[in-house]
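Example 3.2
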Amino acid sequence: MIEKIKAKRGFIIDMDGVIYHGNRLLPGVTAFIEWMENNGKEYLFLTNSSERTPKELHEKLKRLGLKVNEDHFYTSALATAGFLASQTPNGSAFIIGDAGLIHALYSAGYTMNNVNPDYVVVGETHGYNFEKIEIAVNLVMKGARLIGTNSDVSGPIEDGITPSTKALIAPIEIATGKKAYFVGKPNPLMMRIALKNLGVKREEAVVIGDRMDTDIRCGLESEIDTLLVLSGITNEEDIDKFPYRPHFVLNGLIDLI
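Structure, written as tokens:
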């Protein structure tokens, strides 16, 4: 099994729960990245987190002792910005989110608008408050379309879990009766972009993640082999709660090395 995974050309890797928990690097990660570099593997860190820009993710890994170029990161914020730019070029949005999402939308030609935007866009943020929810609800009621960067309900942190985008957007959905469209995993859109960026065919790639409901589902729906690692939010008993299974299961990236 290990050799079959290591024979792949392209590695699409989740971050939270696979590479780190909060500010703690997980065992074996440094050796795994060195192995990919030394063996000429193509790899992309594909994260549903929309808070940070690729530069900030690069800096975070640098603080944890890893040197990874910015072009190895692709976030749900970038995917959301790309999707909206293709749907409504040079549009406007009311954003509930942090720097990664705001920067991605600016870079895609979007302007910020809290009066009559094309979209209300929600991502992970620590700047979440009732006032913003109230504005968002009324903008959606006036016709703005509701977009979520990803459909994660929660994410792992050092001492537990933190609410994620689907939990944050729920009050807007309930108050307006409108359902959000989520761009990030498990939407296969993210995987198709990842394969293009890596320049590999789906048969040559493997998706590595810690979540059955996003990483593994997204890989399966994109017809890419999937590796579930038990170093994040999922344990072995959780696998049977889902009507599908990953192709491979390991305790963590350390098992590959």
